């Protein structure tokens, strides 16, 4: 008779202690990776200062909060192979060693991207554009060399980045123009040959737009019909306070997942700044002239904007938690607001607040709510 009651009492007491000690912990005890464990990995893109652990506060934060890291720039082709046949792996090696030291999942970003492709790759010794055969061989060599160097150490590669336009058409990149649409298939095939156990992803921005959603789904379906290995689709997630709608973003999570691949939120940030033109996604070539009215929060973020940002993050994380069975990873595109590329795009020299940690390495107040949400 008394036994169930004493067990119940014990459980209540333990719950009280657990809850109480949680409440006593300061914000430094928040841990995103523990909170979301069992749901999805939580990652950050790292810059060189962080990769080399030159910034102690950043290093501590990365270790405590994240279980996955992506190299923000140093694995892009123009850095890895600046001249034909001359590979520079110094920074990428350090990135991989860092991830291994802390037992974090490593994401390779990115093998084939029209932007930051080294210029030589499209040009022959005669100064003219190379043939289809030559470009395919150059891609093969690049992918084989890079992927096999880290074979068994990188969990997954963003094999092709941003090959489809927002309306679903093929981007007229040099890769597309010279090789045709099968450059995608070839890139995936070469990556798979070099590391058959690595996961392979297609990654793009503005993925919530109907045209892009359909274009990407069409391409992935074709790859799967041909038996090409593709494990995941990365939705970059460069968001702002009022773009895109949650419903559109959710529609894409569902559409991509129904193709039989994992969904990854690969480059999450939420800008609070005005966008001076129609460019919403992450088209790196778009740039607008600096104007003071476009930089309204240089001295700090007003409470009401901070609260909008908090709500936006909460809505999106609630969506990710709802679909955690389809989502493998959520990666923030940077660590603190000071590091974010959004301070310089699409207008240089602004002060944005797009990430979870502020310029003093402190978790923003709403981060605790994200952590609580994960536990519910
Ligand atoms: O954050 C990256 C920034 O530091 C670089 O200058 C920029 C240009 O290479 O690339 C940024 O990262 C991009 C990513 O590699 C692909 N998706 C869009 C990201 C933002 O431009």
What's the helix and strand layout?
Blueprint: H1 2-24, H2 32-35, E1 41-46, H3 48-51, H4 56-65, E2 68-71, H5 77-80, H6 90-101, E3 105-113, H7 132-149, E4 156-161, H8 174-179, H9 182-194, E5 199-204, H10 210-225, E6 232-235, E7 238-240, H11 246-257, E8 262-271, H12 303-322, E9 327-332, H13 365-375
The structure holds ligand 9MR.
The rough form would be described as globular
Count of helical segments?
13
Strand content: 5-15%
Kindly give the count of domains: 1
- Please identify the top-level CATH class: Alpha Beta
Q: How much is the average pLDDT?
A: 93
Residues in helices, as a percent range? 40-55%
What would your notes on this structure say?
With 376 residues, the protein is of the alpha/beta class. The protein has a single domain (32-375), classed as Alpha-Beta Barrel (TIM Barrel), CATH 3.20.20.80. The chain contains 13 helices and 9 strands. It has helices at residues 2-24, 32-35, 48-51, 56-65, 77-80, 90-101, 132-149, 174-179, 182-194, 210-225, 246-257, 303-322, 365-375; strands at 41-46, 68-71, 105-113, 156-161, 199-204, 232-235, 238-240, 262-271, 327-332. An 8-stranded parallel beta barrel has the order 1-2-3-4-5-6-8-9, surrounded by 5 helices. Strand 3, helix 7 (132-149) and strand 4 (156-161) form a beta-alpha-beta unit. Helix 7 (132-149) runs parallel beside helix 9 (182-194) and helix 12 (303-322) packs parallel to helix 13. The model is unreliable at 16-28 (pLDDT under 50). The protein binds ligand 9MR. Ligand 9MR binds at residues 72-73, 115-116, 161, 205, 236, 267, 282, 284, 341.
